[in-house]
């Protein structure tokens, strides 16, 4: 009897070099878990770029199927919480890092990692949002929980043309905030305007040495860059302002002073989308279904197949990928 096979992008390591290959695997190759999912879509995130290229210590063990998120349909379930035919989405939980992820046509995972697809989204839209969009929603929720309201003043979004930044701009615009988009790609200003950005500031204007305190400018900030950009944003916050940090594209070090915190009462909040608890995770996905305009989501998204992932993995690390990349894992290989 012939075993069912599925296609996957598999990473291996040889002499500390990460290598990829497309393989046809059988179900018994999958790791343990109580739910088997027929994967429909995944997405390409910054962390996936690090994994596929081997330029970051993302993968914890080899061989590994990368892909830190996916959406699909339950094919088999030993869990009381999910049944065959349920549409589900998964982001985080170490999938694509320590447990095989979404760059495959099948995935077997632990049921507690899954979220039921919220009403108002289809499987492709869920991965147009993906980990990046989920992180953006958590960031917006953090600003709201801190009390920020649209009338309080402008919100700056750094790395605005990337995946997290694009969704953050679209969400903030829908909610009525005034948004300044920071990007190093002036040619993408029209794109960011279509998502709802009101003003623009160059990457170099924030990625520079800053005084301990500069002119009070921002009521809120969503920073996807880190490093010097984050330090400069902190120095420019208005009294009582809130900065949400959710990325490190510009570096992991943070050289700042205590002055924004003790003289202006600025709050710096961190966002971790990987281990986010289930109740907040469900709330974030419900908010995304309600607050992210589908037309703006489609403007920031393009779709590829599995075979195109290696080509774009390096590009996303260089900041050359606009918005969101959906991976159709069942597309016919080119």
Task: Characterize this entry briefly.
This protein has helices at 46-53, 123-145, 163-174, 189-195, 203-206, 227-235, 259-263, 278-291, 294-299, 309-317; strands at residues 5-14, 17-26, 35-43, 69-77, 87-91, 106-109, 115-116, 155-157, 179-183, 199-202, 218-223, 237-245, 267-270, 301-305, 324-328.
Task: Write structural notes for this entry.
- This protein has 334 residues and is α/β, with parallel strands linked by helices.
- It has 2 domains: 5-117 and 300-328, Medium-chain alcohol dehydrogenases, catalytic domain (Quinone Oxidoreductase, Chain A, domain 1); 131-270, NAD(P)-binding Rossmann-like Domain (Rossmann fold, 3-Layer(aba) Sandwich), CATH 3.40.50.
- Helices cover 29% and strands 27% of the residues.
- It is built from 10 helices and 15 strands.
- The chain has helices at residues 46-53, 123-145, 163-174, 189-195, 203-206, 227-235, 259-263, 278-291, 294-299, 309-317; strands at residues 5-14, 17-26, 35-43, 69-77, 87-91, 106-109, 115-116, 155-157, 179-183, 199-202, 218-223, 237-245, 267-270, 301-305, 324-328.
- The strands form 3 sheets. Strands 3, 4, 5, 6, 7, 14 and 15 form a 7-stranded mixed sheet that branches.
- β9 (179-183), α4 (189-195) and β10 (199-202) form a beta-alpha-beta unit.
């Amino acid at each position: 009897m012939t075993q069912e096979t599925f296609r996957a992008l598999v990473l291996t390591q040889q002499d500390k070099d990460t290598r990829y290959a497309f393989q046809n695997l059988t179900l018994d190759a999958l790791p343990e878990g109580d739910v088997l999912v027929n994967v429909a879509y995944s997405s390409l995130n910054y962390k996936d770029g690090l994994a596929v290229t081997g330029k970051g210590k993302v993968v914890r063990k080899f061989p590994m199927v990368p892909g830190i998120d996916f959406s699909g349909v339950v094919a088999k379930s030993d869990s009381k919480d999910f049944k065959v035919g349920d549409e589900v989405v998964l982001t985080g939980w170490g999938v694509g890092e320590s447990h095989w992820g979404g760059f495959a046509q099948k995935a077997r995972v632990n049921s507690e990692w899954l979220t039921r697809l919220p009403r108002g989204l289809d499987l492709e839209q869920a991965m147009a949002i993906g980990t990046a969009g989920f992180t953006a929603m958590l960031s917006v929720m953090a600003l709201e929980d801190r009390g920020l309201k649209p009338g309080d003043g402008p919100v700056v979004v750094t790395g605005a043309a990337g995946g997290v930044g694009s969704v953050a701009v679209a969400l903030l615009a829908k909610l009525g905030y005034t948004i300044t988009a920071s990007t190093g790609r002036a040619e993408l200003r029209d794109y960011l305007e279509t998502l709802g950005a009101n003003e623009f500031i160059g990457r170099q204007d924030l990625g520079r040495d800053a005084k301990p305190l500069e002119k009070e400018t921002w009521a809120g900030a969503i920073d996807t860059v880190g490093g010097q950009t984050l330090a400069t944003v902190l120095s420019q916050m208005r009294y009582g302002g809130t900065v949400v940090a959710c990325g490190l594209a510009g570096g992991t070090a943070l050289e700042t002073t205590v002055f924004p915190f003790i003289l202006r009462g600025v709050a710096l909040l961190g966002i971790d989308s990987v281990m986010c608890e289930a109740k907040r995770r469900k709330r974030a996905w419900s908010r995304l279904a309600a607050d992210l305009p589908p037309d703006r989501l489609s403007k920031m998204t393009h779709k590829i197949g599995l075979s195109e992932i290696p080509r774009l993995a390096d590009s996303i690390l260089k900041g050359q990928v606009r918005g969101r990349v959906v991976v159709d894992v069942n597309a016919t290989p080119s």
